[in-house]
Amino acid sequence: MSSKKINGIEIKFVRTIPVDQLQALYQDAGWWHDEYKTTDEFLRRIPEKSALFAGVFLEKKLIGMGRALSDLCSDAYIQDVVVLSDYQKLGIGSMIVKFLVEELKKRGVDWIGLIGEPGTRSFYEHLGFRQMKDYIPFKLE
């Protein structure tokens, strides 16, 4: 799989990430809650079990990530696109999404979706995503 380096920032597909750095990303994004009592094993499995896991590194520090859940054949969902707040507004989020989409398309995946958080609509539309009309996202409660 590929990697790219721009201005000392490297994006590459990985299967392992130091769990403390992964936890720091989730905490910085506000997605981490101590009541989850998440174990190191759980965090290790996120990159291992994702179809694609793109890590963005400044030297050896993880500063961003995104992943795809997919059969790597027909359908994929992009999930957990996040960049540490100190590195936001530098185009890193766009780089992550484009990197994932490029690899998915290379593999023949022709349906790529995601669910964006409130306030991310223009970000994803700028990258070519459009709101799906007449469809409703669901979550099992």
Polypeptide structure, described:
With 141 residues, the chain is of the alpha+beta class. The chain has a single domain, classed as Aminopeptidase. The protein contains four helices and six strands. The protein has helices spanning 19-29, 40-49, 92-106, 121-126, and strands spanning 3-6, 9-13, 52-58, 61-70, 75-83, 111-114. Strands 1-2-3-4-5-6 form a six-stranded mixed β-sheet, sandwiched between helices. Strand 3 (52-58) and strand 4 form a beta hairpin. The model has no long low-confidence stretch (mean pLDDT 92).
Distance N to C terminus? 36 Å
**Coarse structural class:** alpha+beta
Oligomer: single chain
- CATH architecture group name: 3-Layer(aba) Sandwich
Count every helix, treating DSSP H or I runs of 4 or more residues as helices: 4
CATH level-4 homologous superfamily:
Gcn5-related N-acetyltransferase (GNAT)
Basic shape: globular
What is the structure about, briefly put?
The protein has 141 residues and is α+β, with helices and mostly antiparallel strands. The chain is built from four helices and six strands; from the N terminus they run E-E-H-H-E-E-E-H-E-H.
